[in-house]
Amino acid sequence: MSLTPPENRLWWKEPLHGIExxxxxxxxxxxxxxxxxxxxxxxxxxQNLSNEAYRINxxxxxxxxxxxxxxxxxxxxxxxxMPVVRPPAGTDVYMLARLWEWWPILELEKGKEYRLHLSxxxxxHGFSLQPTNINLQIHPNxxxxxxxxxxxxxxxxxxxxxFCGIGHHEMLGKMIIVE
Amino acid sequence: MTTSTFxxxxxxxxxxxxxxxxxxxxxxxxxVVFLAVGGLFGLLVALTRWQAVHLLPADMFYLALTxxxxxxxxxxxxxxxxxxxxxxxAILLNCRLxxxxxxxxxxxxxxxxxxxxxxxxxxxxxxxxxTSYVPMQADHKFYLGLILFAVGAxxxxxxxxxxxxxxKKEKTYEGSVPLVTFGAITAAIIAVYTILSGAVILxxxxxxxxxxxxEIDTLTYRVVWWGFGHSSQQINMAAMVxxxxxxxxxxxxxxxxxxxxxxxxxxLYILFLLLASAHHLLTDPGLSSEWKVVNTSYALFLxxxxxxxxxxxxxxxxxxxxxxxxxxxxVFGWLRKAPWGNPAFAGMFLSIVLFGFLGxxxxxxxxxxxxxxxxxxxxxxxxxxxxxxxxxxxxxxxALAYIVVPLLFRRELIFKRLAQWQPYLFGLGIxxxxxxxxxxxxxxxxxRHWDMAFSDASLTFDYPPAAFLIMAMNGISGIxxxxxxxxxxxxxxxxxxxxxxxxxEAVKSxxxxxxxxxxxxxxxxxxxSLHIPGTAILVSVFFGAFVLYxxxxxxxxxxxxxxx
Lengths: 179, 564
Ligand code: HEM
Ligand SMILES: [Cu+2]
Ligand SMILES: [Cu+2]
Fold this sequence. Notes:
A: 36% strand, binds copper (II) ion
C-alpha cells in the first residue's frame, strides 16, 4: 500500500512494466516536440514577441509619446477628447499607459508594418487588443518595442487587463485600422 | 523518552500520538474555515462578473477578489497541507511528532498572520490582489500577515522534517518511507524553496510599505514573486498526488504499480522546479525569448512529465486493485463497479480526471511561449487554475477529509446522502467555472475586471454578446460550486460536532479502510502480469485531447496579427 513502506525493500531494483516504459517514452517525446514547436515557430511563425526593450524613465517616455502625437495628430476624437494620431506607415508609433487611460488613439493602415512602443508612466498595466486578442504585460520603466502588422480594418479596443486600482475597468483605449 | 501518549487506531492499526492528532485537527479545521470564507467571496465575485446581476460595487469587488485569492489559494490550501504533512509523517510512520510546542507556535503564527491579512483586506486599504504587484501598495499589515503566515508554515515544515528524523532514529518503520510520505517529503522540500523566495520578495515589500526602502523594480518583483507563486503550486501538486495515492489505497486497497516510477515522478517535481516561474512572464518586456523558451521547456515540460506519469500510475493502481477485488468484467468493469457512492473515492477520481483535462492540458498550453500572448491575463487564466487548484487540489483534499475526519475525530459522517452528492456538485460547479472562464478568455474577456461593458469608460468597446451569456453560465456554475462547498462544510463541521461516536460496532459494520486488500497480496514487478487495458484507453483519450487542443491553439495564434 502507498500508506506503508514498500513491500519489496529493494523497490528501486524492480523492472519497469512495458506499458509504463511506453507511456514515459511517449510523454517525454511529446515534451521534446512541444519544445521544438516553440523554436520552429520562432523561425517560421509570424506571431512572435520581439526581444526589444529598453529601460526608460517615465518622464522621458511621456515626452517621446507627446512629441509624436504633436507631429501626427490628425483630429480629436469626439467621444473622449483624445487626439487621434496617424504616423506614416512603416515608422515608430507610440502609446503610453497611465492611471487610467491608454494615450493617444492610434490610426494605422491595414497591411503596413509599424514599430509599436509601449510603456507605463505609473503602475503595471495590461495591453489587451481586442477582438484580435493580443495581450501584453506593460511595465513602468521598461519600453517594449514590437513590430505589428494589422490585417483587418475597424476599431479595436485596448482593454487594461492587469489590475491597476479602482479605475482599472474604465481604462479603455482605441486603435483604428484603415485601408 | 516521550511524554506524549498514543492510542492505536481501531480502523487502521496506526499508532496515533495525541500531540500529532491535535495538531492535525487544528490545522485541518483552520483550513476548512478559510475555505468557507474564501468560497463565500468567490461566490460574490462570480455573481458580480455575471453582468446582468453585477452584485458588488467596484471597490467591494476588488476587495472580495483579493480576499478570495488569499483565503482560498493561500490559507485554505496551506493549512490543510500542514495537516497532511503531519499525517504523512507522525501517523503513517507510527511516530510521535517532533517538538509539538514548536508546532503549535507555527500554527499560532499562521493563524495570526492569516487573520491579520484578512483584517487588512477587509479594512479596504489592501485591495491589491493576492499577487500584490508593486508599485500598488497595500496596508503594511497585509504584507506582515503574509510574512508571519509563511514563517509559521516554515516552522511546521521543520517539525515535519524533525519527525522524519525521529522516526528513522527510533525505527518506527522498516525499509523506505511509504509512497504517500515520499510525496509529502516532495511537497515539503519544495515548500522550503518556496517560502524562502517568498521571504526574498515579501520582506522588502513590507519594508517599502513602511517607507523604509525606496522603489522596487516591477520586473524584478514579478520574477521573484512567481519564483514563490509558481513553486507553491508544485507543493499543491505534490500534496494532491500524495492524497490520490492515499485515498486509492484506503478506498479500494490500491497499491502503486511501481514504487520506482511513482517516486521518480515525484522527484521530477523537485528537480525541474527552479525557473518554471518563467511561464508567468511570457509577455513581459526585458526577458529574452531564449530565456523564456528554455525555462518553460526544461522546467515546465519535465515537471509535466512527472504529472503525466502519475496520471497513469494512479488510475492504473486503482484498476489493478479493482480487478483483484473481483471486478474483472470487460475493459471498464472495474471502473463501473468502483465505489462511486463513497465521497472519498468519487472526489479523488473526479479530481484526477478534472485536473488532467481542465487544468493540466490548459496549463501546458498557456506555458508555451508564443501561445501565452493570446491568453495572458484574460479569464482563460483563472479558468485554467480552477481546473488545477479547485477541481484538482481542493476536491482531492475534500475527499481526504471524508477519511481523515472520521478517523481522527472518531465520529461517523453525518448526512451521508449529502456527502455522497457533494463531490459531484462541487465538481460540476467548478467544471463550469473552469470551462466558462476559459471560453470567455478565448473571447478576450479580461480577468480581475469589474465591468465588461465599460460603461464608465470614455470610449466604448463591445465584447461579443456570447461573452455575456458565457459569464451568466459562469455565475450559475459559481452557485452550484458554492452549494457543493457549503455541503462539504456542513458535513465536516456537522460530523465533528454532532457525529455519532465511531465505536467498535461501527468499525466492523462500516469500515473506512478497504477490507479485501490484505488478502490480495502479490508482489510487484512482473511485466506480464500488469493488465490495465482500461487505464491505457483512458490515458490514450487524454493524450489525444491534449495533442488536438494543443494544435488548435497554434491555429488560433496563426490567425492574429503578425508580430515580431
Ligand atoms: C465556490 C467556489 C468558487 C467560485 C464561485 C469561484 C469564483 C471565482 C471567479 C469568478 C474568479 C475570477 C474573477 C476574476 O478574475 O475576475 C475567481 C478567481 C480566483 N479563484 Fe475562485 N472560485 C471558487 C473556488 C475557488 C477555489 C476552491 C480556489 C482555490 C483553491 C480558487 C482560487 C481562485 C484564485 C487564486 C483566483 C484569482 C484571484 C485573483 O485574480 O487575484 N477559487 N474565482
Ligand atoms: Cu491599467
Ligand atoms: Cu488595469
